[in-house]
Amino acid sequence: MRFTFEQLPEEVAKIHDKLDRISKLLSPKEISTEVPENNLLNIQQAAQYLSLAVNTIYSKVSRKEIPYIKKGKRLYFFKDQLADWVESGTSSNTSLIEAETETQFLAKHLRKARRLF
């Protein structure tokens, strides 16, 4: 293609526009400056979130009734896991405790039965 001297500015503008579109496509997307909601809670925040005393949280952690993360001497909780735990209620924990109790009961009575024979 041959362009006249008068057509050159128009063609250069077209090339410039195409180059701008290509550079926009190739440039990395802008990183969002929004900070996501901090989902990690310490024990005081978890106690406040659940409306429980800190000592109650400690006792639930020691009985492994509540989901937690332990890093060194510190306990951390994920807010969404705590919400799931509250929504699930105690039915799953109760069924686990009942199954464990039944197993221990049967084991104890089987030992006693073996002694008699």
TrEMBL record:
InterPro entries xref list: DNA-bd_dom_put_sf, HTH_17, SinI_DNA-bd
Pfam families in the cross-refs: HTH_17 (PF12728)
Helix-turn-helix domain residues: 40-89
Gene Ontology MF terms: DNA binding
Official protein name in the record: Helix-turn-helix domain-containing protein
